[in-house]
Amino acid sequence: MKAQFRNDTPIDFDVVQSVIQKMNLPCIGKASIREIKRIIDLIEKETGQKFIRMEMGIPGLPPPGIGTEAEIKALRKGVASIYPDIDGTSELKTEISRFVKNFLDVDVDAESCIPTVGSMQGSFAAFLTLARLDEQRDTTLFIDPGFPVHKQQHKVLGQKFESFDVYDYRGEKLRDKLESYFSTGKIHSVLYSNPNNPSWICFTEEELQIIGELANKYNVVICEDLAYFGMDFRNDYSKPGVPPYQPSVAKYTDNYILFISSSKVFSYAGQRIGMMVISNKLFAQRSANLLKYYSSDVFGRAMIFGTVYALSSGTAHSAQYALAAMLKAANDGTYNFLKDVKIYAEKANIMKEVFLKNGFHIVYDKDIDRPVADGFYFTIAYPGFTGEQLIEELFYYGVSAIALSITGSTRTEGLRACVSLVHPSQFPDLSVRLNKFSEHHAVSGNPCLTV
Ligand SMILES: Cc1ncc(COP(=O)(O)O)c(C=O)c1O
């Protein structure tokens, strides 16, 4: 930043600089989400000023009363003292199976629907088990950009992964790109999120069909992370048993695992409960290689009585009652679970406008031929900055986000912005701060563009 602007930043320049120095990080822009959170906490504490906080994907809404009340009732009944079955209570398993039928139009037996300690445990358990299915296949493929913790899980497990940024491989181009990995014979599974964290792109039916066809051809398991289930608000996916349904690869292959988090769509992040839905075919699949690690050669049994048992012996009992109640209400059509979270799209729409008005642009801007939906996240960049530089510079203007580079994105100029924690009362502040930013960083031929 140019010295002449140091007395004119919305947040005190010296405080920001001293906190950054204290954190002693080699590069602020490469910091993890939690490190960025810590820096902003410290700056806010020291200056008493509130940031426009867009770094962390925390649900910014209260949990639905249906869930809380069911959980309290279950606790009062004494479920806390009883070990739940590893693969979940029968009520919950039935409601997950109904939910998948009602909102995805996909048939999965209740047996194959397993609650997990958040979707994160589901993916951890899946990676662990999938890598043992076939000795020849030892690698996961990530369709990026993605949620960095999935890669962290691989590092912790000592497992191999490959990844590519889908930005340049949308539509039919995806086929050759996937085939180039699948044809090596090393890939056991693919993971992507849809809608995508961080870019909020949504795969089209054509793309899901390509993924499904290749999964069948090469016998690769598709791990579809539906953490933001139904939150592409360009379509109304909220009516049970009525099209349109949340698009899914499950329409095109029977070789899949779906991860449905309750954190965002039911604002139930704190209770750490998610759903792992294994296709009936994969659940029943046998593999002699599994016997090296498990007492059963059946994938679903190895998953439940081997992996999930070893990790946590199931999921908190009371939270299962909460989730079952919320799902039942959604399945019965008495609770529109997407109505509550639509506010995220409304906020994104306004916030994107403010960024665009101040010289920023959207990085992942299209699903093939239509603008990406408004939702939980959006991606932004500003001319002349890399994402890592931009993060640090925006701190002085009271705005925080994370660099796309930590998500496997090749768009190194970009940031991910999360709308959930930004209160509408902060929109005027956002506008004033970005205005100041663009005044200090005027784009064409401006000498202050030195960062
Ligand atoms: C794409 C994606 N997958 C999984 C998760 C984690 O979900 P859970 O809270 O259910 O573990 C998140 C949370 O931000 C996410 O964005």
CATH class of the largest domain: Alpha Beta
SSE ordering: HHEHHEHEHEHEHEEEHHHHHEEEEHEEEH
DSSP strand (E) fraction?
Answer: 5-15%
- The mean pLDDT is 95
* Euclidean distance between termini CA atoms: 5 Å
User: Which parts are unreliable, with pLDDT below 50 for 5 consecutive residues or more?
Assistant: 445-451
Count of the separate structural domains = 2
Looking at this structure, what is the CATH superfamily of the largest domain?
Answer: Type I PLP-dependent aspartate aminotransferase-like (Major domain)
Number of β-strand runs: 15
- The strands making up the biggest β-sheet line up spatially as 2-8-7-6-5-3-4
**Small ligands present:** pyridoxal-5'-phosphate
CATH topology of the largest domain: Aspartate Aminotransferase, domain 2
State the helicity in percent bands. 25-40%
Tell me the radius of gyration.
23 Å
Tell me about the largest β-sheet: 7 strands, mixed
Could you say what the CATH architecture of the largest domain is? 3-Layer(aba) Sandwich
By secondary-structure content and strand pairing, the structural class works out as alpha/beta
Q: What overall geometry do the principal axes of the alpha carbons give?
A: globular
Number of helices: 15
